[in-house]
Amino acid sequence: MHTRLSLRLPVTIALLLSTLIAAFAMLAYHEMRALAEAQYSSRVRMASEQISRLLAPVVAARKAEVAAVASDPRIRRALRSPDAVTLELARRALTLGQQASNAPGALELWDAAGQVFATAEAPADLRVPDALRVRPELSDADSVAAGPIRIVDGVVWYDIVAAVRDGGRHLGFVARRRPVVAEPATVRLVDVITNLIGREARFLVGHPATGWTDLQRPAAGPTVGTAESGGLQQTEIVGLGKRMGAAEPIPGSPWFVWVDFTPARVYARPTLFLHRILVIGLLVSMLGAAAGWLLSRPVTGSLSALTDAAQKMAAGDYEQRLALGRKDEIGQLAGAFDRMAAAVKEGHHSLERQVAERTRELEQTLGQLAGSEQQFRALASSSGAAIVTADHGGSIVFINEQGERMFGYDRSELIGRPFSLLLPERERPGLERRRERLMAVAEQRRLGRVIEVTARRKDGTEFPVELSLASWVAGSARLVGGVMRDISERRAMQFSLEERAQRLEAANRELAAFSYSVSHDLRAPLRALQGFSEALLEDYGDKLDARGNDYLNRVSAAAGRMGRLIDELLELSRVSRTELRRERVSLVPLVAEAFGQMHQLEPARQVRLIAHDAPLAFGDERLIALVVQNLVENAWKFTSKVPSAVIEFGRGPGDAVGRPSYYMRDNGAGFDMRYSDKLFGVFQRLHSETDFPGTGVGLAIVQRIILRHGGTVWAEGTPGKGATFHFTLGGRHEPAGTES
Amino acid sequence: MKDVILLVEDNVNDQELTLRALRKNNLTTDVVTVGDGVEALDYLFGTGRYADVKNRPTPRVVLLDLKLPRLGGIDVLRRLRADARTKWLPVVIFTSSREDQDIIEGYRFGATSYVRKPVLYTEFLEAVRELGLYWLMRNERPPHAPDNAG
């Protein structure tokens, strides 16, 4: 329910106040009712007691009258010995008694057996009805008693009965039948009582069982419950409705006094109070509502302004500002609203910009998509590979031209057929597994690797293909694409490559066996040749002439040289065959070590070594040491005729891809650049053996090792000026590390 | 008992050169020369040709060639190392080769030392001299293994 805030506060206040007042009124009303009941209860009791006290002597007087008649001797005599004379006398006594009271009714004389002896009627027009003329009753204990009220033909009657006794003998009764009529005495009494209890009250005399009278005529009274005395008794009275009253017995009689009020009378004041307080409450609530409205008007006014502004803003007018200028919470709220409005305006603009941007991107993407679709078609048709796309169930939905050619099918024969048609029976389960695994993966992805499977053409021939599977989601469909490449040629090439590798392997094994054999068997005869020529020279040198000695020396030297050649060839073979174990290698210490070895062999020579810092190399340390050793040896050898020989090692300019290069320079014999291509050949020499001894294998070993590392080696030289050997080591390079 | 060297060498030239080198270096010791691996084992274990030979001194050192007829040097070495009597016997491989394969196998199967026979006579002399001096003079022979009391 949409209730405006400006109404809600006053209504709430009014409701609150009226609820409070109503609650208070109800409580107070109930209290007051209880109070009123108590008040009236005591009032009624007091009244009934007083009335009872007023009536008691009247009753006693009436009883005394009758008792006086009953004690008349004439009455007793008539009953004792009834005859005409005594009866007449008794009748006179009765008449006298009747006349003495001067009230309507009758005096009757009854004998003990229940016979009427005599009657005296009052001279009034009110005669005793026959129904009342019944045998009087009196308990033995009483001498005189009032009887119950009896109502006959709208007249209230009562009896007073007195016993006639002679000594202890019961002779009969004198009964007075008396109506309740408006005698002057009674009227006075009623006036007195009425003054006593007030006109709003009603008082009755009587008994619930027999009836009630207001002392003048019959009256409606309570029919039950007067016996008990106590608080105010509420009772339903025929013809009058609810009454509240209390009863009090009249001493010396079987009658009660009943005083009652209407409940309206009893509750008049609480009811009046209730009415008043409700009127007051209504007024207070209205006042409260008015006050609330007056109080809330500035707030709701601002809120209304805020609401209006917000509604306008919701409608798209972002220029709404409040600027209330108030310092209280409303002012802060308005300030916050203004800031929010500014932010919304900014956000709205930025959103519009973003939407425009996204739209542009989307259009671009769509354009690209269309482009990529065309691109795909173009690529697919020009591709050398067969491209096949299958749907979720494995049915072919697309195949490119190369696919048709490769498998010998027409496109129309394949679309809608299972993908597995392109494979021989034995390959199908494997492919299915792969396809299912691929489909099971939620996101778009390629199956990890390319696999090689056997494919089958339409004519049943089989050929090897390389297959890669990919899966993607297009709308709600899940597709699997396969790219197949005919690898028959590659297979054939692989076979030939494998064959060649095997042959190479065999050749290597042969080479190894050859080297092994050379190592063992070729050296033994040389040792014999060398050894025995030397032995001959030792034992028989003096028996030969100079020429004989010379010849033997030549044999020995040749054999020794051949031994060296064989050793170096074996070394070359070894560096070709051993496995490369790459690690970080520091070159400068290797240079220093090789230089030290040379120096130890020829300590007399003066050679200076200059070793610069150089980057760490990455290669087989043992082989690189061999490179360094050969280069140092080479430099050492070719500087042997230079007085101040210098060997220099350091870092070169590096190669084309930034790998470090190293150089070893000497100021020795140098070489003619025209023959530089021969420098690294086996047994190739650019100088005579006599000038510089050597086998011509050292640089071949250097080159072999460098090449095995994937590096290059080259030399620069000038005859008589020296030579420089450059090399790189290929492979991974370590630009970070340098040597110290 | 006189010191002996057991020379296991099939090449008669190398036999002669070795003996000459010892002689030249004044290493006057008895050299027992056998021409193949089987004979070497026969001598050391007193079997075959050496079954009835009473005077069969345990050599101070065995100079063992690798390429031998019938039973190769490595196999001889394995048999010697597998037997308690010769488990600790000093065996120096003395051969032409310097191939990695030979050196590795030699040591793997328990060679005491590996010395390559040089081609150059002077170097050969030097090698034999060093071997002789070392194994005959310097080296303390191992005690008999406990279960080889005979």
Which structural traits does this protein have?
heterodimer; A: 740 residues; Beta-Lactamase; 6-stranded antiparallel sheet; 15 helices; 24 strands; 21% strand; rod-shaped; disordered C terminus; B: 150 residues; 5-stranded parallel sheet; 5 helices; 5 strands; globular
Describe this protein's structure.
The complex is a heterodimer of chains A (740) and B (150). With 740 residues, chain A is of the alpha+beta class. Among the domains of chain A are: 56-179, PAS domain (Beta-Lactamase, 2-Layer Sandwich); 318-382; 383-486, PAS domain (Beta-Lactamase); 492-558, no CATH class; 580-728, 2-Layer Sandwich (Heat Shock Protein 90). Chain A is 49% helix and 21% strand. Chain A has a 6-stranded antiparallel sheet with strand order 8-7-6-11-10-9. In chain A, helix 6 (268-314) packs across helix 7 (329-382), helix 12 packs parallel to helix 15 (698-708) and helix 14 packs antiparallel against helix 15 (698-708). The model of chain A is unreliable at 733-740 (pLDDT under 50). Chain B has 150 residues and is of the alpha/beta class. Chain B has a domain at 32-42 and 74-92 and 101-110. Chain B has helices at 12-24, 37-45, 73-82, 100-108, 121-138; strands at residues 4-8, 30-34, 61-64, 91-95, 113-116. Chain B has a 5-stranded parallel sheet, with helices on both faces. In chain B, helix 1 (12-24) links the parallel strand 1 (4-8) and strand 2. At the A-B interface, helix 11 and helix 12 of A face helix 1 and helix 5 of B.
